[in-house]
């Protein structure tokens, strides 16, 4: 059986909330834009990095856990969009492999994935197409899912600095990487784990189907820090857009429900892993 040691967890704020409810928090503190929580679940010491979405934020959180809290293993958890047929909101996915889907070269009209650069144990520099999770942690995650009566699919998770709600892009990701799900943090956490020779695994739950059904005018829903307009003005614009586009409001509510369900499911599995 895998020994997790001191566990390091990485997730975005909304998806951390269900786990925080069962965690005995000892201390909290900021490191840059990462909020770090330390404490226990079931007597197991752990450190939790609350990060903003995206690979860079996830890498900052994982690195903070390694350097500041000397964690022995890393778990990326939260929601993901479904790429494989048959996956529905709430279904669990355990990442056996993580790949960066937006790292590569555009050659004319063609994008060629290359992976991310790194060094091996001999100091050689090259590209890693994929990061392999620790087999014992994958096994532990699958066994924990069985104890919950939920079951989980295991396979590849792809990560990018993009939100995917596009059927054509979804098909490309599935065909190119043979991936089960897409999200924005796992490959970055895996890259940090590999750099420090730490075991890692990803636990994700499906929040949406990553296709055209969730398309919204996200320009109307965002606030930009470098925008001259105040935040309240952007919020007014958001509410006007939603009030005048009932279809957009329904899609946003459906997405919100999916995210809440995925957050609960992923947190339940992480808790079961930590207690195992």
Would you mind describing this structure in some detail?
The protein has 276 residues and is an alpha/beta fold. It has one domain (7-213, 259-275): Rossmann fold, CATH 3.40.50. The chain contains seven helices and 14 strands. It has a five-stranded mixed beta barrel with strand order 5-13-12-6-14, surrounded by four helices. A two-stranded antiparallel sheet has the order 7-8. A hairpin with a 2-residue loop joins strand 3 (34-41) and strand 4 (44-50). Helix 3 crosses helix 7 (246-275) and helix 6 (231-244) crosses helix 7. The longest helix has 30 residues, at 246-275. The radius of gyration is 19 Å and the shape is globular.
Brief summary of the model shown:
By secondary structure, the chain is of the alpha/beta class. The chain has seven helices and 14 strands. It has a single domain, classed as Rossmann fold, CATH 3.40.50.1580.
Distance between the termini: 10 Å
Work out the helicity level.
Answer: 25-40%
The biggest sheet, with number of strands, parallel, antiparallel or mixed sense and barrel status, is:
5 strands, mixed, barrel
Report the strand count.
14
CATH C-level: Alpha Beta
**Subunit organisation of the chains:** single chain
CATH superfamily: Nucleoside phosphorylase domain
Low-pLDDT stretches are none
Taken in chain order, the helices and strands follow as EHEEEHEEEEEEEHEHEHEHH
| Residue share in β-strands | 25-35%
What sort of overall outline do the alpha carbons produce when their principal axes are compared?
globular
Mean pLDDT, nearest integer? 95
Tally of structural domains:
1
Strand order of the largest sheet: 5-13-12-6-14
Q: What is the CATH topology assignment?
A: Rossmann fold
Number of helices: 7
Structural class: alpha/beta
